[in-house]
Amino acid sequence: MRKFILLISIMALACLPVLLACIDKRSGDDSGGNAGSLDISATPGPGLADDAEASESDDLDDLDDLGEHDFGGADFTFTSWRFGSCRNEFAFEEETGDLINDSIYKRNRTVENRFNLNIRDIEYQDQDGSVRKNILSGTTAFDCANVRCTEAFVFWCDGLLIPTEEILYLNFAKSYWSQSINKSISINNTNYVAVGALDISTYEQTFALLFNKKLVETYALENPYELVTSGKWTFDKMNDLMKRVLNNLDIDGKQTDDGIYGYMAHIKHAMPGFWIGAGEIIIKKDENDAPYLSMSSERFLSVFNKIFEITWDNNAWYRNTENALLNIPAKNMAKFINDQSLFMDTSFHFIQDLRGMDTDFGILPYPKFDEGQANYSTRLSYYYPLIVPSTCSSEDLEKIGIMLEVLNSESAKTVVPVYYDTALKNKYARDEESVEMIDLIFASRVCDLADSTFCELIRDGFIAGMFAANNRNIVSKIESTELIISSRLENIPNK
Prior knowledge:
The chain is an alpha/beta fold. It has 15 helices and 15 strands. The protein has 2 domains: 7-24 and 53-204 and 382-428, D-Maltodextrin-Binding Protein, domain 2; 207-380 and 431-490, D-Maltodextrin-Binding Protein, domain 2 (3-Layer(aba) Sandwich). Helix 1 packs antiparallel against helix 12 (394-428). The protein starts with 6 loop residues before the first strand and ends in a 5-residue tail after the last helix. The relative contact order is 0.21.
């Protein structure tokens, strides 16, 4: 079987999953979820380097070592699909006036002029099977395909991807690749996926909390920014603030549509936002980099139950059980804009949709479980990597390796600064405190395989349904699913 490196956006910062206690007595660490995230006292980087270390664009480590190559006007073609929850485009024929799109356009022109080729991006329909069909046919109309992280894993297991060692020119020691995240998402010591600066979607799939400043002022609440910086931003503190604004029940005790809520989130995004914020990881890896299920520790069970207590028991969560297509349901967005919720879960992609909101809002990381947890931990969710088909020739593979390396390098210099510094910090954030929080959030990102690669088995498989139904019987669920999940994980081919 063949494995692969998939290429997506730069994950600027520390993202090694936290090592906690495990069910099957494999190696682990029940340290309370403090690994893999950044202490508030640390100085966060600008979103361009690993492990919270700043990286300036003129640093030699940001420059590729490719030298000169001439491809004689050939095409380099992506195939990608469009999704309303993040940006998946890799090429534009002209400048559109959008800051990020135009930075992608300029990046491509720079690369095209340097290597004498043309960069193209062909759209395909999501989940129509065209990528797989193309590869199985023995010929493809593309050099790289953008797919779901779950699909990429299956493609790897089915031998449809080019393994790492066959892709020359890729230098993963460079700062435009994220060593820590690549380590966290590898399986059996195989990086069939690799995170780099090329695909901005992983920035946009990073999650945070927004808070309504008008409600903070109206109800004389503590300053959320000060709670974060003091280390007192915890589940209990968030619960206290939410309870003080709640006004959402009718005389029969049912939630009303015009009430004020404490928290809004998509049914499948609420639980992972909190459990990762608490420093918990559902799928850990042993000393051989093999994934295994870890949901039975006392701390995880406490975190799981506490999430229900602060969302369901106080009627803080707006009970929108619609399984909306987009990460942020339209109902939630409308109510937050209408000052009907103190907090709203969001990925960074959707913050741009609040530019017309009259009330000011702030940006926060998810809270820690308690003050004993040293560091904040932020969720990097489901992602959309690039794959290289196993059908490409050795000549095409040389071109692909060169292009992927240079496009990641140029993205770190051209696209990421525009997205991170200009769009996020100057265009979407509304105050200096939010700018500081953005640095903290991106410096503390964590990727749980249960929330990404295996989300169909775990997050969407049963946890989202349990949350929607207010079903807290996680011990019984673990007992009934542990054998199935563990068997799936243990039977991953060791390529």
